[in-house]
Amino acid sequence: MKVKVKLYAAFREIVGSKEEELQLADGTTVQMLLDEYVKRFPRLDRYREHIILSVNKEYGRPGRVLNEGDEVTFLPPVSGG
């Protein structure tokens, strides 16, 4: 299945692209996708606990199974006052 991955801020700089289309195996979860990105781009590991992932503009729980055409977004942590 194909999914689109959008990357923002430091994640875009690490990966070298603001968007990728990936071919994934059926049954791939959000956590599995994140693990694959950390494997491909080890610098992402330091953000692992703080990455906010969304799937189709909704919070992407780690166990959520991805589907054909899903859009996954890697968002940096947000802080402010």
Descriptive account of the structure:
By secondary structure, the chain is α+β, with helices and mostly antiparallel strands. The protein has a single domain, classed as Beta-grasp domain (Ubiquitin-like (UB roll), Roll), CATH 3.10.20.30. It is 21% helix and 27% strand. It has helices at 10-15, 30-40, and strands at residues 2-7, 19-23, 52-55, 58-59, 71-75. The chain has a 5-stranded mixed beta sheet with strand order 2-1-5-3-4. A hairpin with a 2-residue loop joins β3 (52-55) and β4 (58-59). The longest helix has 11 residues, at 30-40. 14% of the residues are buried. The mean pLDDT is 93.
CATH first level: which class? Alpha Beta
Q: What is the mean pLDDT?
A: 93
The proportion of strand residues reads: 25-35%
Main sheet summary: 5 strands, mixed
Separation of the first and last Cα atoms:
41 Å
Q: Output the strand order for the largest sheet.
A: 2-1-5-3-4
CATH superfamily membership: Beta-grasp domain
The name CATH uses for the topology is: Ubiquitin-like (UB roll)
What is the helix/strand order?
Answer: EHEHEEE
Name of the CATH architecture: Roll
The structure class reads: alpha+beta
Low-confidence parts: none
Backbone CA Rg:
12 Å
Domain count, please report it: 1
Q: What is the overall shape?
A: globular
Number of helices: 2
Q: How many β-strands, per DSSP?
A: 5
Q: Which percent range fits the helix content?
A: 10-25%
